[in-house]
Amino acid sequence: MVAAQAGRRLVTASSHSGPPDDLDRDLDVAPGEWDPQDVYYLMTGLVVPRPIAWVSTVSADGVLNLAPHSYFNVMSNDPPHVVIGSSGRKDTLANIEATGELVVNITTEHVLEQMNASAVDAPPEVDEFERVGVTPVASHTVAPARVAEAMAALECRLVQVVPAGNGHIVIAEVTRIHIDRRVWRDGRVAPDLLRPVLRFAGTQYGTVGELFKLPRPTWNEDVGDRDPDDRSWIPRR
Ligand SMILES: Cc1cc2nc3c(=O)[nH]c(=O)nc-3n(C[C@H](O)[C@H](O)[C@H](O)COP(=O)(O)O)c2cc1C
């Protein structure tokens, strides 16, 4: 039960119908106990930060489309695969289903405002490259253009669309990787040059803060012969 307390909600007993302002005990909740929108905010506030795929697609009629998707990550490496989640059905999903192709432009601080502008609920016949003022560049392996102003882009082919409740999980194989020379240092992408934008819940974003390295232990070299109570092998920050 939720008790009103000076206009705020406080968890006091066994069940509750939405997020309280304060907790007098730890929260344990089943998704079905709350309104789906509250669960969405809870989950997208917890699984953070998320990278933002700035997805370019083309419709069956040839209209270019752009939209950010922060339900996004890389999920396999040989060959590389990415996943994107569509909440409900959007132009991006319809275009991917129609053509089997997409480009994931990586969202960095260089293109933050244009990325956000492209989240507008434009009708499907609107060319969102043109509307937000970014430049299409022909891809090598797929029909949708990449964004010239983006520091990196992944050309992808659809593998599968998996239904997930009211959403859809798009699994795609990466067929070509484009990286701007300005974010490259010492044989790899440098995070301080890439400057990815990190998404938290709602309209809250972040940038990369402190970077540090933490070596990964191996059983044979670091752990195997030690006494089970000896934890001196655990790398410290
Ligand atoms: C940073 C950001 C991340 C977003 N992530 C997603 C997402 O992961 N899935 C989704 O369905 N919509 C997401 N949206 C909302 C879509 O971008 C928005 O609904 C857009 O209008 C869809 O465009 P489309 O109809 O051209 O595909 C996000 C919006 C922003 C600003």
Q: What features would you describe in this structure?
A:
With 237 residues, the protein is α+β, with helices and mostly antiparallel strands. The protein is built from 6 helices and 16 strands. The protein has helices at residues 36-46, 91-99, 112-117, 128-132, 191-194, 219-223; strands at 2-5, 8-11, 22-23, 53-58, 64-69, 72-77, 80-87, 101-106, 136-137, 146-147, 152-164, 167-179, 184-185, 188-189, 197-199, 205-207. It has a 7-stranded antiparallel beta sheet, covered by helices on one side. A hairpin with a 2-residue loop joins strand 1 and strand 2 (8-11). The two termini are 43 Å apart. 25% of the residues are buried. Mean pLDDT is 93; it is low at 1-7 and 9-16. Flavin mononucleotide binds next to strand 5, strand 7 and helix 2.
Could you give the topology of this structure?
Layout: E1 2-5, E2 8-11, E3 22-23, H1 36-46, E4 53-58, E5 64-69, E6 72-77, E7 80-87, H2 91-99, E8 101-106, H3 112-117, H4 128-132, E9 136-137, E10 146-147, E11 152-164, E12 167-179, E13 184-185, E14 188-189, H5 191-194, E15 197-199, E16 205-207, H6 219-223
Parallel strand pairs: 2-3
Antiparallel strand pairs: 1-2, 4-5, 4-8, 6-7, 7-12, 8-11, 9-10, 11-12, 13-14, 15-16
The structure holds flavin mononucleotide.
Labels describing this entry:
237 residues; alpha+beta; seven-stranded antiparallel beta sheet; three-stranded mixed beta sheet; disordered N terminus; binds flavin mononucleotide
